[in-house]
Automatic annotation (TrEMBL):
It comes from Paenibacillus contaminans. Keywords: Oxidoreductase. It comes from the Bacteria. Belongs to the short-chain dehydrogenases/reductases (SDR) family. This is 3-oxoacyl-ACP reductase.
Length: 251
C-alpha cells in the first residue's frame, strides 16, 4: 500500500500535553488531508487547546476520552472512530505515567498503576487497532519509551521496568507484524523538558543537564520529529528498533 503522509489518520494517546501534544502538532503541520485523533483521559481543556492548534494548521481533528487501563473503554473509543469512518494508519502509544522513589517504598498499588497505564494500555490499544492495519497491509505503531527502559535508573525501578517491557514488546511485535507491512518501533527519549521533570528541583535538573553531553534537556518538538520520521512511507524498512534521542547521554 503506497500512501502519502497527508492521507494518514494518526491516533496519539496522551495527547493533551508534552510529547503527545507535540507529536500531534507535528503531524497536523502536514495540513489539509491529515486526520488527527487526540486521546486524553481527563484533561478536557488542555486537549481542546491542542486540538485548536492542530485545526489552525489545516488538519481534521477528533478528540476521544478513555481510560487506557480498561479494554471496554478502548473498545468504545474505537466505536467512536468507526462512526466517523476513521481507522488509524499510525498509532502513537504515548500515554504514560512516571514514578520516583525507592523500590522499598513502592506499594503494590503503585506497581499495578504504573504497569497498567504504561504497559497494559499500550498492549490494549495496539491489540485493538492493529487488525485494520494488518488487513490494509500498512501501518505504523510507534511506542514512546524512555532511556530508563534501556539503562535502568536508581529510584525509578518500576518506571524503568515498565519501559523495558515496552521495548521488548516493540521488538517482538515488529517481527510478528513485519509480513503484514506494519512497522513497530519505539522512541526512548532521554531527559525532556516536560511536566514529568517537575518532580526534580532546580539543583537536581542542573546536575542532570551537566551529565548530558549536549548540555541541555530535549524539547518535546525534537522527539516529535523522530516519531514523524518513523511514520513516513519511506521508513518502511525500519522496524523493531528502539531509538533513543538523548543528547549523547547514553550511546
Amino acid at each position: 500500500m503506497n500512501r502519502a503522509i497527508n492521507e494518514y489518520t494518526v491516533l496519539v494517546t496522551g495527547a493533551s500535553r508534552g510529547i503527545g501534544a507535540a507529536v500531534a502538532e507535528r503531524f497536523a503541520s502536514v495540513g489539509v488531508g491529515m486526520n488527527i485523533i487526540l486521546h486524553y483521559r481527563q484533561a478536557h481543556e488542555a486537549v481542546n487547546e491542542v486540538a485548536r492548534r492542530c485545526l489552525e494548521k489545516g488538519a481534521r481533528v477528533l478528540t476521544v476520552s478513555a481510560d487506557l487501563r480498561s479494554k471496554e473503554q478502548i473498545e468504545r473509543m474505537k466505536e467512536k472512530l468507526d462512526l466517523h469512518g476513521l481507522q488509524p494508519d499510525v498509532l502513537v502509544n504515548n500515554a504514560g505515567i512516571s514514578h520516583y522513589g525507592l523500590l522499598s517504598d513502592v506499594s503494590e498499588t503503585d506497581w499495578d498503576e504504573i504497569m497498567s497505564v504504561n504497559v497494559k494500555g499500550t498492549f490494549l490499544c495496539t491489540q485493538t487497532f492493529m487488525p485494520a492495519m494488518i488487513e490494509r497491509k500498512f501501518g505504523r505503531i510507534i511506542n514512546v519509551s524512555s532511556i530508563w527502559g534501556l539503562t535502568g535508573a536508581s529510584c525509578e525501578v518500576v518506571y524503568s521496568t515498565a519501559k523495558g517491557g515496552i521495548n521488548a514488546f516493540t521488538k517482538a511485535l515488529a517481527k510478528e507484524l513485519a509480513p503484514s507491512g506494519v512497522t513497530v518501533n519505539a522512541v526512548a527519549p532521554g531527559a525532556v523538558d516536560t511536566e514529568m521533570m517537575s518532580g526534580f528541583n532546580a539543583e537536581e535538573k542542573k546536575a542532570i543537564e551537566e551529565g548530558i553531553p549536549v548540555g541541555r534537556f530535549a524539547v518535546p518538538e525534537e522527539i516529535a520529529s523522530l516519531v514523524y520520521f518513523l511514520a513516513l512511507p519511506e521508513s518502511s524498512y525500519i522496524t523493531g528498533q528502539i531509538i533513543s534521542p538523548n543528547g549523547g547521554w547514553h550511546t
